[in-house]
């Protein structure tokens, strides 16, 4: 009897010690006068992975209402800081930008251009900063900068006007053949040709089967390059690859091989005295660049920069335009208001131009409301802290995972009043003649701070011009009785459910 009691006492003591050790391990040391961020209690080993479910942006937004704008969860055994609220996020990413500019070293990110991606790289030092500036300058030079050889205001305008006309022709062909179309499938090809022309000029294979196949399978990338991918938090899953992870690996390999082939062809006839595209600008810098300031790029690394520029320019713009078309057929009265504005300001004798933006405030307001209401980029790519820091009185150690909940910012009732109503008018000034700049700056879609999207201006201009040209010439609808589902499908960028019933009809005859 005494032996049995001793055994029970020893077992109870062992269990107590294990529980105490686990609790202490999950409550790291915090400097005096500070505190750890609050958060819900999670399951052992799993953390909050089951709690997050299929819509982590919604779950974390609800948790922020209880625990505040700075809260902490665990995914597996990894503590993750979750930031909500525009003021708190601005404090972290802008005022304390150097503290929060890191990127965690995730397994899934190492599969993107063999781990050399600038966007997904854990590096945030001087070499990364120099290469980011170089990519930004090359992108601007062959997108939003003036094109001396054209009457258009910039390279982007030339490319978009050409591809928008081609898109209109394809949509009319689809209408004549089958009477409807899937907007995403059509838009992604046009956007790919725009960013391809800026990256590669005439060398981009616009009609190749390989290009079309890759572009139409970008969802294989988007569904895995997410903030909450389990493979990044449970390393054992790397050895039991899921079908989604296998597709992710295969897509990245195919895309890199596709880019490498075009860049190699570009290099063979490269003329540094005649730079016509982003790849040419990077090749010229590669040839002349100095290693002293870290901005030199080995030629084999150019593919990683082009991958970042091409990928970001393709997915964000395609997603925004395809969401816009779905909202237009769901809200025909909004479409009519945009078209009335286009008819009044531009008429039908000429195409819309980028210089028309200030005179088309309702279209601009519509685009801002698409960004806000759909919040199709629910989270920034994960950040990490570069050193021990504090935020709102909470202690955040170095190399701490950080999620930025952009969806919460765009649906914060304190900011928007009626966040779940689709109401473009909210962004107009009282007289309806201009955009309310203060309110427009509260929409989060391209991030903030030192890792803000380098293609933000390009994306906004391209979305505007595509929509202006399309809506000037076409009226979009769905047949009577067809229900349009706008429930987002979670991913790096959230997509709408595919709809094959969208229709487009000419608004007037084009001579």
Automatic annotation (TrEMBL):
InterPro entries: Cyt_P450, Cyt_P450_CS, Cyt_P450_E_grp-I, Cyt_P450_E_grp-I_CYP1, Cyt_P450_sf. Pathway: Lipid metabolism; Cofactor metabolism; retinol metabolism. Pfam families: p450 (PF00067). Transmembrane segments: none annotated. Its cofactor is heme. Heme binds at residue 453. It is a peripheral membrane protein. GO terms for biological process: hormone biosynthetic process; progesterone metabolic process; retinol metabolic process. Its EC number is 1.14.14.1. The keyword Metal-binding applies. It is an enzyme of class 1 (oxidoreductase). Keywords: Endoplasmic reticulum, Heme, Iron, Lipid metabolism, Lyase, Membrane, Metal-binding, Microsome, Monooxygenase, Oxidoreductase. It comes from the Eukaryota. Signal peptide: none annotated. This is Cytochrome P450 1A. The lineage of its organism: Eukaryota, Metazoa, Chordata, Craniata, Vertebrata.
């Amino acid at each position: 009897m005494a032996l049995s009691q001793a055994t029970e006492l020893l077992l109870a003591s062992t269990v107590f010690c294990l529980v105490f050790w686990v609790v202490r391990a999950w409550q790291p040391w915090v400097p005096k006068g500070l505190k750890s961020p609050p958060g819900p209690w999670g399951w052992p080993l799993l953390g909050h992975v089951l709690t997050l479910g299929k819509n982590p942006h919604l779950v974390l937004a609800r948790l922020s209402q209880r625990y505040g704008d700075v809260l902490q969860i665990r995914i597996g055994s990894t503590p993750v800081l979750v930031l909500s609220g525009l003021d708190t996020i601005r404090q972290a990413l802008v005022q304390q930008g150097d503290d929060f500019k890191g990127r965690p070293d995730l397994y899934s990110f190492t599969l993107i251009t063999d781990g050399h991606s600038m966007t997904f790289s854990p590096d945030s030092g001087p070499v990364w900063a120099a290469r980011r500036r170089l990519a930004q300058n090359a992108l601007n030079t062959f997108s939003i900068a003036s094109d001396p050889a054209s009457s258009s205001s910039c390279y982007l305008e030339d490319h978009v006007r050409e591809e928008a006309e081609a898109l209109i022709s394809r949509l009319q062909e689809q209408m004549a053949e089958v009477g409807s179309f899937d907007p995403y499938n059509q838009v992604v090809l046009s956007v790919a040709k725009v960013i391809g022309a800026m990256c590669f000029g005439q060398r981009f294979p616009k009609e190749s089967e390989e290009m079309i196949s890759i572009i139409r399978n970008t969802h294989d990338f988007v569904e895995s390059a997410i903030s909450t991918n389990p493979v990044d938090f449970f390393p054992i899953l790397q050895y039991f690859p899921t079908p989604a992870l296998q597709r992710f690996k295969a897509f990245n390999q195919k895309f890199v091989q596709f880019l490498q082939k075009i860049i190699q062809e570009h290099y063979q006839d490269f003329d540094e005295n005649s730079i016509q595209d982003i790849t040419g600008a990077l090749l010229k810098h590669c040839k002349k660049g100095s290693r002293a300031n870290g901005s030199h790029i080995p030629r084999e690394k150019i593919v990683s920069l082009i991958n970042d520029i091409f990928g970001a320019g393709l997915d964000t713009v395609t997603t925004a335009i395809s969401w816009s078309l779905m909202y237009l057929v769901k809200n025909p009265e909004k479409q009519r208001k945009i078209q009335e504005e286009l008819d009044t300001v531009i008429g039908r004798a000429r195409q819309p131009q980028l210089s028309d933006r200030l005179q088309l405030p309702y279209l601009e307001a519509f685009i801002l409301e698409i960004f806000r209401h759909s919040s199709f980029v629910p989270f920034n790519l994960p950040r990490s802290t570069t050193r021990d820091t504090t935020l709102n009185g909470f202690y955040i150690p170095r190399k701490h995972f950080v999620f930025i909940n952009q969806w919460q910012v765009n649906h914060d009732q304190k900011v928007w009043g009626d966040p779940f109503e689709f109401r473009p008018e909210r962004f107009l000034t009282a007289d309806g003649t201009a955009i309310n700049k203060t309110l427009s700056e509260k929409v989060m879609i391209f991030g903030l701070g030192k890792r803000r999207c380098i293609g933000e201006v390009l994306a906004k201009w391209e979305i505007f011009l595509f929509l202006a040209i399309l809506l000037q010439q076409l009226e979009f609808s769905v047949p009577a009785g067809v229900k349009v589902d706008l429930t987002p499908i979670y991913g790096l960028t959230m997509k709408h459910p595919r709809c094959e019933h969208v229709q487009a009809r000419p608004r007037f005859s084009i001579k």
